[in-house]
Amino acid sequence: MESTLQYKILYNRLKKEILADVYQVGSVLPSENDLCAASNLARSTVRQALSQLESEGFIVKQKGKGSIVKSKSRALNLLSFQGFSAMVGPEKISTLSVQEPQIQPWPVKFFFELNELERGAGCIHFSRVRSIDGQPLMYESTFVPNLNLPQFVRQFKLNSSFFEFLAKTYQLEITGMEQEIWAASADPEIAQRLQLAEGTPVLKICRKYATNRAHLQVYSLLYCNTSKYAMSNSSGVVNQQSI
Amino acid sequence: MESTLQYKILYNRLKKEILADVYQVGSVLPSENDLCAASNLARSTVRQALSQLESEGFIVKQKGKGSIVKSKSRALNLLSFQGFSAMVGPEKISTLSVQEPQIQPWPVKFFFELNELERGAGCIHFSRVRSIDGQPLMYESTFVPNLNLPQFVRQFKLNSSFFEFLAKTYQLEITGMEQEIWAASADPEIAQRLQLAEGTPVLKICRKYATNRAHLQVYSLLYCNTSKYAMSNSSGVVNQQSI
DNA sequence: CGCTAAAACTTGTACGTACAAGTTGAAAGT
DNA sequence: ACTTTCAACTTGTACGTACAAGTTTTAGCG
User: How far apart, in whole angstroms, are the C-alpha atoms of residue A185 and residue B183?
Assistant: First the structure.
């Protein structure tokens, strides 16, 4: 299900090539004029593709120089564990199922306000613990409104990527996010899930994801152990750390 | 020092008018064509201004409908690079000076890596505690490379906005940010600064701000009490919560 | 060889046109 | 009174031109 929009096509191609190391981190992309000539697009269209790559943190543009590949990291500046893929390979990440996907009513006291459409539809809920090297780092409890997402419970596997599943199965893309963050003490349940002493400080994060389907939003409640790995993110245009 | 760029001028005007309730939250801005006619600008220029407003969360654009005012000031947007006084009204914020601005060498163990230019220049350092309604919420310790920022120590007042001071005095704008976040226990000093019991969970945040001056970066170390107010932010394009 | 100035790049801003596609409300038809 | 259709909006995409401004390379001069 590829887009027919010219700037999206170019954006996807460049993103794929960055991820595949065709353009390595620190190197410069072909100039806008080169991309125009190669793809037979107007410069404004090429700039639209590059602009999206920049806003998602893949490249940094510098006047007079060019578009420099900044990072291979994924879209959206989600708060993520530092060096989740760099320091430890994805093979060392393990997932423990706490609650397999099931359809249920919404919790009575939910951490975000729901509209009537969502409230009436009920939700799909699942929970999992993600670990690195056997050490539990994150307890994640996710709630999806049960709105026209056929076969979700049957098809989604907890040890795979939730966002990739949404994209492949329903052509759903995450377009934005809001979150609230607290420092909290691990209560007995969280302490047990993350194998911590009760009362240990943990990050508590409530997230609402927006999607490209109007009025469909996804909710996540996270508890994170930051004793070994910090959570990190970046936003805006960050200078290149040369010199 | 206002910008001479047309799209920046329009952006600033619209932002100011949103903050002043000329356009209330939930209402629609004048259409792009109306803005073109009123300001004698091309539509692409108007769209550039609106695009920046959208990326910063002030408006949401919907095809066929218009540009809807989403938020006056990205409420409590502490985790994005907007800064403290922009999110809660400045009238309720009180500031306690812990360390007046002074020139000093960098701390031996600094929380971000410094390049040689920064290391050699030394730093300007100040610390303050910010409270809302008399309740200390945040302990902030800021470090700025002492690079061509004349009169900083003399002119910066701790109870004013740091980012606004940088903009007005040096035409420095914050263009981006990276941060790392932990949940930590308040040590004796932090507990005293934030008037908390020792061991209370607090958010610890290390930030690096990028500016429009190449190679000039600003560093901040924050400790936040989240018992009453959560930290929050948003990124990407978030759906309108209507229905 | 070393320095300077100009040329040849790069991205940024600003203008314009044209049409596609989503939304809304009014007019026309039943 | 109700439904359907259509016209009049809205933003989105894509094309194009021109010049400004920052960076790097090159050519020329002393």
Answer: 9
Name every chain B residue with its beta carbon within 8 A of the beta carbon of A211.
Answer: 239
Query: So what's the pLDDT on residue B236?
Result: 66
Cα(A111)–Cα(B24) distance, integer angstroms: 27
**Is nucleic acid strand C under 7 Å from B62's C-beta?**
yes
Task: Please give the DSSP secondary-structure letter assigned to residue B28.
Answer: B
Please enumerate in sequence order all residues whose Cβ is within 8 A of that of B44, keeping only pairs 6 or more positions apart, or say none.
A44
Position with higher pLDDT, A21 vs A237: A21
- Across chain B, what does the average pLDDT equal? 86
Whether A85 has a pLDDT exceeding 80, the answer reads no
Residues near B241 by Cβ (< 8 Å), separated by ≥ 6? A113, A115
> Cβ contacts of residue B55 below 8 Å, gap of 6+?
A55
**Domains of chain B listed by start with CATH number:** 2-69 (1.10.10.10), 75-242 (3.40.1410.10)
pLDDT above 80 for B74: no
In the block, residue with structure tokens 């240990």: A200
* Facing A176 at nearest CB: one of B79, B182, B236: B236
Contact (CB, 8 A) for A30 and A22 = no
CA dist list (Å): B165 to A73, B156, B176, B215, B222: 33, 7, 17, 19, 19
Classified as helix, coil or strand, B200 is coil
User: Predicted confidence band at B82 (pLDDT cuts at 50, 70, 90)?
Assistant: very low
**What pLDDT does residue B79 have?**
55
Question: Which own/partner contact pairs does A222-225 have at CB distance under 8 Å and 24+ positions apart?
Answer: A222/A138, A222/A139, A222/A140, A222/A141, A223/A138, A223/A139, A223/A184, A223/A186, A223/A190, A223/A193, A223/A194, A224/A81, A224/A137, A224/A138, A224/A139, A224/B183, A225/A135, A225/A136, A225/A137, A225/A138, A225/A194, A225/A196, A225/A200
Task: Please name the member of A44, A238, A242 whose beta carbon is closest to the beta carbon of B178.
Answer: A238
Q: Which residues contact A101 (CB under 8 A, 6 or more apart)?
A: A124, A125, A126, A152, A153, A156, A158
Cα→Cα distances A43→A9, A21, A37, A52, A131, Å:
15, 24, 9, 14, 45
Q: How far is the CA of A199 from the C1' of C6 (A)?
A: 69
Q: DSSP string of B216-243?
A: -EEEEEEEE--SSS-EEEEEEPPPP---
Q: A240 Cβ partners below 8 Å, 6+ apart?
A: A60, A62, A68, A70
Instruction: Phi first, then psi: give them for residue B210, nearest 5 degrees.
Output: -95, 150
Task: Please name the helix (run of DSSP H) or strand (run of DSSP E) that holds residue B97, with its range, or none.
Answer: strand B93-104
Tens of pLDDT, residue by residue over A1-48, are 567 899 999 999 999 999 999 999 999 999 999 999 999 999 999 999
